[in-house]
Amino acid sequence: MSDSESLEQIRSRIDALDNQIQELINQRAAAAQAVARIKQREDADAFFYRPEREAAILRTIKQRNTGPMGSEEMARLFREIMSACLALELPMRIAFLGPAGTFTQAAALKHFGHSVETVPMQSIPDIFREVESGNAQYGVVPVENSTEGVINHTLDMFIASSLSICGEVMMRIHHHLLSQESDLSKIKRVYSHQQSLAQCRLWLDRNLPHAEQITVGSNAEAARLVGKESGSAAIAGEMAAELYHLKGLARNIEDEPDNTTRFLVVGRQLASPSGEDKTTLMCATRNVAGGLNALLAPLAEHGISMSRIESRPSRQGNWDYLFFIDINGHREDENVQQALAVLERESRLLKVLGSYPNAVL
Ligand SMILES: O=C(O)C(=O)C[C@]1(C(=O)O)C=C[C@@H](O)C=C1
């Protein structure tokens, strides 16, 4: 490369590079097809999607990247290449909390890439049912927000479900005030999901103190309603703005600058270790004070760090409290196995909800 190169010369170099990239992508796609044939031969019910392998590939890409393209951008490109390769092996259906345009759909596409079919569901239980029945291979559900805390509806689903967690997605959530109107003073009503209204409480108090706040099932639903109603605005994200052709009256109105939502990928599959994994446990005790200590001590003794603990009243009668605990490590790691054996004895109920790679993107 030199500065004396003309525009034509640089463009012909780009053409030659594109040619090579295209050839290499097709070679990669053929290799993925060969992997699929081996998987099928070994097991007729094999899982084609391998979260641990995808996470390891994306981590390597980020680590070895030297630029000028940024590591996140490079990983996103490879995310899409892998998504297209997997679609050649098996077209994938991913259930998400609809309607179209929700942050859950954005999370599903971020995690799986755009070569999957995303299928909108009306509720979190519907997502679990769709995956349990095999109509969709995986589902994506929100589980906690950095401003508003845990989404109890999702945690409660794991009590009775046979599905496992096989991945997590972290999404920076930017909320926008969307409307047909071009003037804030025209807004009399604001529609959104209750979590989104809560995440923008200060902004609303300051800028729209007299507007009525109306809770609806999702922010995409809010955007859909506002597309048909003057004098109203929705709090929703970029995807919903595009889908329902709304103007952004104000952007990034979330109160917390690093407002992040964590989503879980659920499926009928147990992910293998990727080297950097997390395990989610559901445990029950009867006596909260002593019981909780009995759960946590074995983790500390085996050098396992805990990244999250949530307690829920069980509502089942058999025990008083349920704890949802995230630990670092995979259920196949020796120290995790040893700690789980102790927990099994100490708790009234222990369910490993899944071991899965830490979010990479
Ligand atoms: O390695 C595999 O098992 C593959 O199927 C290949 C591949 C890839 O494109 O690299 C595709 C899909 C899987 O989820 C993981 C990786």
From TrEMBL:
GO biological process, one term: L-phenylalanine biosynthetic process
GO cellular component terms listed in the entry, alphabetical order: cytoplasm
Site residues by UniProt (Essential for prephenate dehydratase activity): T261
Pathway per the UniProt entry: Metabolic intermediate biosynthesis; prephenate biosynthesis; prephenate from chorismate: step 1/1; Amino-acid biosynthesis; L-phenylalanine biosynthesis; phenylpyruvate from prephenate: step 1/1
Compartment(s) where it occurs, according to its Swiss-Prot or TrEMBL record: Cytoplasm
Keywords: Amino-acid biosynthesis, Aromatic amino acid biosynthesis, Coiled coil, Cytoplasm, Isomerase, Lyase, Multifunctional enzyme, Phenylalanine biosynthesis
Signal peptide (from-to): none
Keyword Cytoplasm: yes
Residue ranges of every copy of the Chorismate mutase domain listed in the record: 1-93
Record bears the keyword Acetylation: no
Function: Catalyzes the Claisen rearrangement of chorismate to prephenate and the decarboxylation/dehydration of prephenate to phenylpyruvate.
Protein name in UniProt: Bifunctional chorismate mutase/prephenate dehydratase
Native source organism of the sequence: Sedimenticola thiotaurini
